[in-house]
Amino acid sequence: MKPPLYALLIAPWHGMRNDILQGRKINSIRDGHRDYVADCPMMICCHLEPWAVMVDITKVRHTTYGEITADEYRADGFSSQEDMMRSMREFYPHIQLDSPVTVIWWANARGWLVDNVDAYDLGATYAYKRLARNLGVA
Predict the structure, then answer these.
(1) Which residue, of 31, 44, 56, 125, has the greatest Cβ tally within 10 A?
(2) Exposed/middle/buried for 48, CB within 10 Å: 0-12, 13-18, 19+?
(3) pLDDT digits (tens, 9 = 90+) for 108-123
(4) Dist. CA 78–CA 75, nearest whole Å
(5) Residue 29 pLDDT
(6) What pLDDT score was predicted for residue 137?
(7) What is the pLDDT of residue 123?
(8) Which residues of the chain have pLDDT under 70?
(9) In terms of Cα–Cα distance, which of 31, 27, 1, 4 is closest to 16?
(10) Which ranges of 7-119 would DSSP assign to H, the alpha helix?
(11) Rounded distance, CA 15 to CA 23, Å?
(12) What region, left, alpha or beta, does residue 105 occupy, with left being phi > 0 and alpha being psi -120 to 50 degrees?
């Protein structure tokens, strides 16, 4: 049986997207215990901007915010546990150190955008504007 295709929504931040495309961002900390499974494909995408890439989930760890290791929060771009909690509360204001969390690791980012990182901005902007015109919202 084929494994399911998982998806992970990413914020529309240019720097984060480029880090994913270039293999510098390889994990994500997500509130709650989520049903991701290692050795399965995952699509990383943004519902606010038209982009997506495929990756392979390499590791999933269910834990609490207080038990996230320095390696895990640093790989996700945070300088300290306090920095992580402050930033995560922008999305999940209710979290505490004992709140459940899932840490997802991936590798092997692939797809057209990975192979054409420099072309993304112009192509996506053009495609988005054309779509907006076609929908009558531009």
Answers:
(1) 44
(2) exposed
(3) 999 988 888 776 654 4
(4) 7
(5) 97
(6) 53
(7) 47
(8) 119-138
(9) 27
(10) 14-21, 70-75, 81-88, 112-115
(11) 12
(12) beta
pLDDT computed for residue 11 by the predictor? 85
Quick one: how far is CA 118 from the chain centroid? 20
Q: Is 90 exposed, middle or buried (0-12, 13-18, 19+ CB in 10 A)?
A: exposed
Give CA–CA dist 50/132, Å, rounded. Answer: 12
| Residue where the block lists tokens 């510098």 | 24
Element at 133 (helix H, strand E): helix 120-135
Order the strands of the 51-64 sheet from edge to edge: 6-9, 41-46, 51-64, 100-110, 27-31
Provide the pLDDT for residue 133.
Answer: 59
Give the pairing of strands 100-110 and 27-31: antiparallel
